[in-house]
Amino acid sequence: MSNSERAVGPGRRERLALLAIAGLLALLVLWLRGGLPSQTPLEALARRSPALGEALADGTPTVVEFYADWCESCRAMAPAVEAIERQQRGSLDVVLLNVDNPRWQPELERYAVNGIPHLELFDAAGTNLGHSIGARSASELEALTAALLGGEPLPELAGVGAVSRLDAGGSPAAPASTDPRSHG
Questions:
Q1: In this structure, are 52 and 103 located in the same domain?
Q2: pLDDT per position as a tens digit, 107-151
Q3: Over the stretch 39-52, which tens digit does the pLDDT of each residue have?
Q4: Could you confirm whether 71 is annotated as catalytic?
Q5: Which domain holds residue 164?
Q6: 110 and 27 share a domain?
Q7: Same domain, yes or no, for 28 and 59?
Q8: Residue from 74, 112, 144, 160 carrying the catalytic annotation
Q9: Catalytic site includes residue 74
Q10: Whole-prediction pTM
């Protein structure tokens, strides 16, 4: 090999050494920072979430949560929702739909979602029994899911109500605001 070939750039051995050093430095940085970031309960739930159509057709009650990653109330509720999903797996479907994903715009409009967290509650036959608007405590979420699982009426909680989307004329009522990203 001539001097001009060596001056062009590092050889194969040098490139491998540089790659090895870069890999070791990346591992060192990960180790110093405590490893890879762990999933939040909200992210874990969303990844495990069944498809909405499948959940509504599989013969089990379903809770659909409209959420956003940036929503403090959604994040605060996530551990309780995750616990319920884990305890009731196979008996209750928990579906998460991110309001920031344009894919869910038809569902946002269908269920008149204008704030989050927003829960839609379905019986085992896929019939919409009502909704829950706003943050819920663990005990409130347990009461809602117990009613769904037991085939009982929804508990009387502020922000929980039966579904009624028709005005006096029989046409769908227009929500005051259809942008849940406004969060208020």
A1: yes
A2: 999 999 999 999 999 999 999 999 999 999 999 999 999 999 999
A3: 677 888 888 899 99
A4: yes
A5: 41-182
A6: no
A7: no
A8: 74
A9: yes
A10: 0.69
